[in-house]
Amino acid sequence: MASESAPPSLPDPFGDQHFETRCVHVGVDKDDAYNSCITPIYPTSTFRWEGLGKTKGYDYTRSGNPTRRALEESLASLEDGIDCRTTSTGMSAIAACMHLFRPGDHIITGHDIYGGTYRLFSSLFTDMGITFSFVNMLDLANIRAAITPATKCVWIETPSNPLMNLVDIAGVTAICREKNLISIADNTFMSPYFQRPFELGVDIVVHSTTKYLNGHSDVVGGAVITRHNPHAERIGYVVNALGLACSPFDAWLVLRGVKTLGPRMEAHQRGALALAQMLAKHPAVERVYYPGLPDNPFHALAKQQMKGFGGMLSFDVKGDRAKAERVMLNLKLFAMAESLGGVESLIEHPDTMSHASMTAQARKDAGITDRTLRVSVGIEHPDDLLADLKAALNA
Ligand SMILES: *Cc1c(COP(=O)(O)O)cnc(C)c1O
Predict the structure, then answer these.
(1) Could you tell me which residues come within 8 angstroms of residue 322 by beta carbon, excluding any fewer than 6 positions away?
(2) Taking a C-beta distance cutoff of 8 angstroms, is the pair 197, 169 a contact?
(3) What confidence score (pLDDT) does residue 2 get?
(4) pLDDT digits (tens, 9 = 90+) for 94-136
(5) Residue spans per domain, the chain
(6) Alpha-carbon distance 394 to 278, whole Å?
(7) At the topology level of CATH, where does 19-258 sit?
(8) How far lies 122's CA from each of 104, 108, 182, in Å?
(9) 118 lines ligand 1 (CB under 6 A)
(10) Beta strands 222-226 and 285-289: pairing type?
(11) pLDDT of residue 357
(12) Is the Cβ atom of 121 under 6 angstroms away from ligand 1?
């Protein structure tokens, strides 16, 4: 049924244009039939052949679909990769990457990576014979110390969740080059607008497009972007063989979201900086975690490897868990909810929500308290967010 050949390759006629321009134009304007200015949705499972061996580039939607391919062109361009495959969720993008490896291979990653990634690595792929070391990657010596003859990959996630610790990406990829390891970076938190892992030597970038790339909290999706041909071919093969690809409709929504990525990220950051500065001075707050604050321990590294500080921050409320809960429940503009990266502000309690799948000890080791709150700052006017959060803290 589905051919194993790759869908048409990715030309990038906007490759020399600025980022914001590529967000608007790459993968759009695809309709030769009626010249619609917006990419059409092709909700079809199958495509008519014109003769034996003759299609218009697509034969079956699991293997390739024009709407999905348009999104893949866009994301490949934004990360400056050679190929992209978009998937049903961020987790399926990560699962696709794991199929670059075989039983016996060893992977080094952070001890504070996304909880779903930790679960996938430590259960399903461990059961399949891949081994993992979860180390504190803030100190590069810990990565060197974990390398064994079986090590094949270092998996990077930065900034980390929820405390916004930064891993030195160029430092990690230097080790990977020296030891001939693949480096893979989960770039979900910063988006390619603020962080470009390929420029720092990373081999493969993954995203949960659920977050900033889509930006409107109405899709779950993922992406794997590659910059070397063998990785591009293997990921394409795996996504087709396992059936991980996203639906044409979801691809269309993400493609629409991506058009405003630049202005959205600027607005998220503006709000996050204003909130972080207010929180740092507020008597009801013990500690703020935001790399954009000059006294944050990662501020210098952030300025070196990121083009901005993003829209995520966390803070520890003074007092106890009940006070932290009261702050959340007193808010009017911030919904108490997991996830991040949408235009609306969200607040959550990592200890019992996003990071509940970690053991209590692991949370403690990572520095998460029962008074830590994580905020995904939306694009509302910063003055309204400030007033709402101040009122909730003072109540
Ligand atoms: C949300 C998230 C994922 C998982 O993505 P889903 O779309 O929920 O499957 C992976 N990594 C990070 C950093 C995330 O924030």
Answers:
(1) none
(2) yes
(3) 39
(4) 999 999 999 999 999 998 899 899 999 999 999 999 999 999 9
(5) 19-258, 262-394
(6) 13
(7) Aspartate Aminotransferase; domain 2 (3.40.640)
(8) 14, 12, 19
(9) no
(10) unpaired
(11) 80
(12) no
Query: 127-176 pLDDT, tens per residue?
Result: 999 999 999 999 999 999 999 999 999 999 999 999 999 999 999 999 99
Q: How far apart are CA 154 and CA 165, in angstroms?
A: 17
Q: Determine the length of the chain.
A: 395
Residue 186 among the catalytic residues: yes
Q: Would you call the peptide bond into 230 cis, given omega within 30 degrees of 0 as the criterion?
A: no
Residue 308: which of 262, 344, 340 has the closest Cα?
Answer: 262
Secondary structure of 64-108 as H, E, C letters: CCHHHHHHHHHHHHHHCCCEEEEECCHHHHHHHHHCCCCCCCEEE
Q: Which residue from 88, 94, 112, 114 has its CB within 8 A of the most atoms of ligand 1, so it is best to mutate?
A: 114
pTM over 0.90: yes
Q: Is 220 a pocket residue for ligand 1 (Cβ < 6 Å)?
A: yes
| 357 Cα–ligand 1 center, Å | 14
CA–CA separation, 47 and 157 (whole Å): 39
User: Tokens for 164?
Assistant: 């916004």
Per-residue tokens: 141: 């010596």
- Ligand 1 centroid from CA 322, angstroms: 28
| Residue 171 CB partners (closer than 8 Å, separation 6+) | 140
Q: Are 139 and 94 in contact (CB under 8 A)?
A: no
262-394 has CATH 3.90.1150.10 classification: yes
Q: Are strands 182-186 and 131-135 parallel, antiparallel or unpaired?
A: unpaired
At residue 6, does pLDDT exceed 70?
Answer: no
What three-state secondary structure class fits 56? coil
- Catalytic residue among 62, 234, 303, 318, which? 62
Radius of gyration of the chain measured on its C-alpha atoms: 21
**Whether 237 is catalytic:** no
What are the tokens at 135? 């180390």
Atom of ligand 1 nearest to the CA of 92: 9
Does the pLDDT value for residue 394 go beyond 80?
yes
CA of 228 to the centre of ligand 1 (A): 24
- State the greatest distance between any 2 C-alpha atoms of the chain, in Å, as a whole number: 73
At residue 7, the pLDDT reads 55
364 is catalytic: no
